[in-house]
Amino acid sequence: AISASTNLLFPGQYLALSSDRHWVLSTYYTPAPDQVRELSSLPSLPDDQGRIVLLTRAGVPVDELAYDHRWHFALLQSEEGVALERINPQGKTQLAGNWTSAASTAGFGTPATMNSQAYAGGPDPSSIRIEPAVFSPDGDGWNDFAWIHYRFDEPGYTGNITLFDLSGRPVRHLLQNGTLSRQGSLRWDGLDDRQQALPSGPYIMLAELFNLTGQTRRFKFSITLARKF
Question: 130: which residues sit within 8 A by CB, 6+ positions away?
């Protein structure tokens, strides 16, 4: 039983159930920790495969899934601690193609909030944009970071996002063979890979991304770093 008492779950809310709430909260980030509930006992959920059924109080099945670890993203080095996420909540539950691994950029799991690979349908063009194009990392609270916002029309993209100086030398690797959620953001703080401040001037951001269907995407932008003298 999920609860011995009546609880209200409103539209847009999510509930995470675990036999060890502390482990979930210490392993994954969630903006809704109160929605992570600990149960005294849960059915066994083996990593490789298993079956889970959600029933009403009267015993009527609401949803049912026989899962398989082979639904994970094929290029993962390890499946340990990686959540298996449903992509489209309106899609068929038992469709293998409707499941994939949680994105590394989301910490490999999003308990009590929307799945990192969630997609509800409708237009969703792929894009990457930089905001702002000129930023000043001086700690004054105004344009201190350059944000890279991305959005894809399907899950399962992985790749590299690198910053280069005008001589073509890589100065900061924001993402290295990382899996991306369907949409999200990365930020650049004006530091290099050694966490040293880079000089003012223009830099080039190169994103090289691909998925298992063979689709590749390449994005190139200019970002200007400005510092006060």
Answer: 146, 147, 148, 149, 205, 221, 223
Predicted confidence (pLDDT) per residue in 154-174, tens digit: 788 898 999 999 999 999 999
Q: What's the rounded Cα separation, in Å, for the pair 134 and 136?
A: 7
Three-state DSSP class for residue 61? strand
Residues 205, 163 contacting (CB under 8 angstroms): yes
DSSP 27: H
Cβ atoms of 76 and 83 within 8 Å: the answer is no
Residue 209 and residue 157: Cα distance in Å, rounded?
6
Token pair listed for 161: 């996002």
In the numeric block, the tokens 């966490």 are attached to 195
Torsion angle of alpha carbons 25, 28, 31, 36, nearest 10°?
-40
Three-state secondary structure string covering 160-210: EEEEECCCCCEEEEEEEEEECCCEEEEEECCECCCCCECCCEEEEEEEEEE
CA 105 to chain centre: 5
For residue 129, give both structure tokens.
Answer: 């944009």
Amino acid residing at 194: R
pTM of the predicted model as reported, rounded to 2 decimal places: 0.67
